[in-house]
Write a structure and sequence with these properties.
Length: 466
């Protein structure tokens, strides 16, 4: 009896241990398949194709519910987590032909909302902020407070855009911290990410593996970031990749011309990382001046109304610009402006730059407002038919005080519409290679002239009070 009792006790201990280990193993497995870095983006030009993107530590099936029901759309990619990047499994699901309006999603228990393009004639708001560029949790949390305040003031925003440099070093630890800090806002609406130099320069493939976007059919471009566009309401928004080539590939330039000429939207807006007009610390850098020589005539040709950029962590707003010259007077309201307006809405994070003492005269002459507010800034844009209202706010995370900083209203009664006579330009690298080579040479010569005949005389004039 004693031996039987001992055997039964031993068996009970073994079974209990096995059950405990089994539960622990199940818990570990569940944690490994929990989704993280969950984000929603616009993955098609019509604003009705939605990209869902997330990671898991272990390979598993992608289970997605839209509006409470399992999604059974026509396009699903990497749904079984076969694709691995930097030690984790990437999941991408593309939702096609979504009906206009708000929708909910459920990805492994992570729930949120996104908004599908409601079509022309529908009013909407969206949020834009500058660089985050944080390296540690405190830095990401600091920037997240700015976004929290932006969403508080614009709770019905359709989406939020970040103008590049979402991290400082683009590694797993920093992307984890970014998504952890920004999860509450990513659940409110889609994110419109812009590839910054800290996200794409010598950081091959990182940006495209953090977001599901409508990638151009140019492998080299995709290595350093993604350029893409989408419709929302009366706006057509193009997001450019200023990392793809210096000053910028002809393939991408032609893509923007084709994209804007084909759009019948009332408002044509471009988001970039590097700015064409700035008076910050990067104003005279050897990467920005060549880029500027390319972008300014490009936006003129494309008929762009508004350009918003990051990179230089200052606040700046220009006059309407055409042909690199002012096409209007300083004002906070314009009706049918004769040029493109350029905005730098400042940084959302704690890193800030000083105003440069000397810049190219054309940059200085373009400015209506250019300063360092010393605080994070966020902006809200409201589009109501033929009126676009832009408002910038400073936010102090220490005190929680928000103050209106600058505003701009653009009213249009004349709209270009789509150009039905435009013949699409080539957008592949092979056929545009000769233009790339010639463009590099011509821009290089122009940049040298900018330094020798415009920047240096201005510098000497500043030094000697001339």
């Amino acid at each position: 009896m004693r031996k039987l009792f001992t055997s039964r006790r031993l068996l009970a201990v073994v079974l209990s241990a096995a059950l405990l280990l089994g539960c622990f193993g199940l818990a570990t497995h569940a944690a490994d398949t929990d989704p993280f870095r969950v984000v929603v983006t616009y993955a098609g030009e019509n604003g009705k194709t939605i990209g869902l993107h997330w990671y898991t530590k272990a390979q598993c099936e992608a289970i997605v519910k839209i509006d409470g029901l399992p999604y059974s759309g026509s396009t699903n990619i990497y749904t079984d987590g076969n694709y691995k990047f930097q030690g984790n499994y990437v999941h991408k699901v593309i939702l096609t032909d979504m009906t206009p309006g708000p929708h909910t999603y459920d990805i492994g228990g992570v729930t949120g909302t996104f908004h599908v393009n409601p079509g022309r004639g529908v009013n909407f708001d969206f949020i834009v902020t500058g660089d985050v560029q944080a390296s540690d949790k405190a830095g990401f949390d600091y920037s997240a407070k700015t976004h929290e305040e932006a969403w508080r003031l614009f709770p019905n925003a359709a989406f939020s855009a970040i103008l590049g440099d979402l991290t400082n070093d683009s590694n797993n630890a920093q992307w984890d911290m970014f998504f952890e800090a920004f999860t509450p806002f990513n659940k409110k609406g889609a994110m419109v990410p812009v590839a910054g130099n800290h996200d794409g320069t010598f950081k091959w493939n990182w940006f495209r593996n953090m977001f599901t976007l409508n990638e151009p059919n140019n492998t080299l471009s995709n290595l350093t970031g993604i350029y893409y566009s989408f419709d929302y309401g009366d706006a057509h928004i193009a997001v450019m990749n200023t990392n793809d080539m210096y000053p910028m590939s002809v393939a991408q330039q032609n893509w923007l011309i084709n994209d804007m000429k084909a759009s019948d939207a009332k408002w044509k807006i471009v988001l970039t990382h590097r700015p064409p007009y700035t008076m910050g610390s990067h104003a005279n850098s050897p990467d920005l001046i060549p880029m500027r020589r390319t972008l300014v005539p490009l936006f003129d040709r494309a008929g762009v109304d508004l350009v918003m950029s990051g990179h230089d962590h200052i606040y700046a707003r220009t006059l309407p610009m055409r042909g690199d010259k002012p096409a209007g007077e300083p004002a906070n309201a314009y009706t049918n402006p004769a040029g493109t307006l350029y905005l730098l809405p400042g940084a959302a994070g704690s890193k800030r730059y000083d105003i440069a003492g000397t810049v190219l005269p054309a940059m200085k002459n373009a400015m209506v407002k250019c300063e360092q507010p010393g605080k994070p800034i966020f902006t809200g844009i409201s589009i109501r038919g033929g009126t676009l209202t832009y408002t910038a706010y400073t936010y102090d995370p220490a005190t929680g005080i928000t103050a209106e900083y600058d505003s701009l209203t653009i009213t249009k009664t004349v709209f270009a519409g789509a150009d039905t006579t435009h013949k699409p330009l080539p957008t592949d690298f092979l056929s545009t290679l000769p233009q790339n080579l010639w463009g590099f040479v011509s821009v290089l010569i122009g940049t040298i002239m900018d330094y020798l005949f415009r920047l240096l005389p201005a510098l000497f004039g500043s030094l000697f009070g001339l």
